[in-house]
């Protein structure tokens, strides 16, 4: 352990191809110097990186300070350990926790590094992981069992977020759970709900194909939400549709738990109407800054609404555990892979929303 001799330095890290943001919707593969690792860091050969909506957002935007290197959902192999690192070894397979929490602010000290006051994040404020080689402190690496493939491990970060949602929501076996939004996060929350043995899962989306996928994957009931194209008064529109859904699917007075993973305002309103008195709504979709909620019903039904972001300590390990026990299968979600050298095409595809989950092979 901690022996930084032997295999260290065998792999040639001089050609460190990295996916760099140079202008909105314009990427370049550039060489970025890896540099020496410090005594308390590890160096990874990055194998896979999942792409998500937030990457596409950075790609398409014109931030004042764009991190040159994008990417934050990655897994790889440790190829070098610093002399003071005692709990990681060369050759170890790991996933990367991409947040640099300060572990000193009041939120970190309370065990909530996901809302760290000084948080920096790979691919957002720090250089990301869409690179061949990446160095970080060992505690940002999560050991992977051999049974978890690198491809799946490239999607562990969003699964860790789904685990965090399950924690915050107090997901329980006897609950009926509704999920608005059948994108990757919605699908992963359904997978976690299924793994936790919930009674019934109802999936909502405006796209038939996404609903069909959710039903094939983990949902018991799939519902295509209509668009309010005739400008019906929003509360009436949501009320009429939810009454129809509850009657048609025998949901009685509503569901115990609703996960809002779409960010769409009508879904937030429907969530209040669909959740039974005393139930919980988890807000997980990042929609527009101001969303109107039927507060009268929210109050009268004694509902609880919680927000959460990213993941908290142990969520990655729980996600790895779910994969190792085959309680969650990520493979069906990975609909395309691209070599790192074709990252531009991967980001175009991500923006076009044709895929469920795209994974980039960092060494190719
Ligand atoms: Zn992401
Ligand atoms: Zn902090």
Automatic annotation (TrEMBL):
Pfam families: ADH_N, ADH_zinc_N. It is an enzyme of class 1 (oxidoreductase). Residues 22-360 form the Enoyl reductase (ER) domain. Pathway: Carbohydrate degradation; L-arabinose degradation via L-arabinitol; D-xylulose 5-phosphate from L-arabinose (fungal route): step 4/5. GO terms for molecular function: D-xylulose reductase activity; L-iditol 2-dehydrogenase (NAD+) activity; zinc ion binding. Its EC number is 1.1.1.9. One of its GO terms (biological process) is sorbitol catabolic process. Belongs to the zinc-containing alcohol dehydrogenase family. Xylitol dehydrogenase which catalyzes the conversion of xylitol to D-xylulose. Xylose is a major component of hemicelluloses such as xylan. Most fungi utilize D-xylose via three enzymatic reactions, xylose reductase (XR), xylitol dehydrogenase (XDH), and xylulokinase, to form xylulose 5-phosphate, which enters pentose phosphate pathway. This is D-xylulose reductase. It comes from Coleophoma cylindrospora.
């Amino acid at each position: 352990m901690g022996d930084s001799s032997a295999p260290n330095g065998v792999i040639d890290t001089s050609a460190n191809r990295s996916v760099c943001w140079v202008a909105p919707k314009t990427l370049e593969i550039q060489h970025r110097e890896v540099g020496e690792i410090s005594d308390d860091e590890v160096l990874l050969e990055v194998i896979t990186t999942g792409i998500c909506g937030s990457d596409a957002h950075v790609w398409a935007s014109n931030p004042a300070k764009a991190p040159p290197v994008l990417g934050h959902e990655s897994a790889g192999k440790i190829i070098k350990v610093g002399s003071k690192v005692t709990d990681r070894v060369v050759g170890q397979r790991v996933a990367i926790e991409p947040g640099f929490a300060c572990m000193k602010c009041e939120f970190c000290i309370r065990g909530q590094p996901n809302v760290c006051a000084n948080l920096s994040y790979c691919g957002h404020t720090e250089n990301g992981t869409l690179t061949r080689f990446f160095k970080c402190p060992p505690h940002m690496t999560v050991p992977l069992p051999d049974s978890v493939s690198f491809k799946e491990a490239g999607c562990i970060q969003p699964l860790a977020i789904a685990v965090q949602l399950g924690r915050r929501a107090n997901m329980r076996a006897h609950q009926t759970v509704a999920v608005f939004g059948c994108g990757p996060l919605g699908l992963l929350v359904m997978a976690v709900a299924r793994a936790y043995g919930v009674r019934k899962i109802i999936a909502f989306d405006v796209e038939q194909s996404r609903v069909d996928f959710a039903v094939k994957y983990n949902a018991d009931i799939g519902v295509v939400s209509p668009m309010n194209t005739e400008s019906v008064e929003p509360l009436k529109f949501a009320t009429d549709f939810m009454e129809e859904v509850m009657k048609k699917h025998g949901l009685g007075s509503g569901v115990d738990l609703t996960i809002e993973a779409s960010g769409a305002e009508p879904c937030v309103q429907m969530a209040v109407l669909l959740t039974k008195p005393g139930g919980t709504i988890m807000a997980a979709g990042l929609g527009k800054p101001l969303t109107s909620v039927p507060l009268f019903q929210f109050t009268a039904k004694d509902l609880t609404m919680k927000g959460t972001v990213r993941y908290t300590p142990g969520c990655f390990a729980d996600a790895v555990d779910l994969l190792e026990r085959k309680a969650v299968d990520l493979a069906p979600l990975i609909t395309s892979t691209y070599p790192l050298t074709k990252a531009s095409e991967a980001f175009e595809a991500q923006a076009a929303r044709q895929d469920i989950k795209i994974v980039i092979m960092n060494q190719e």
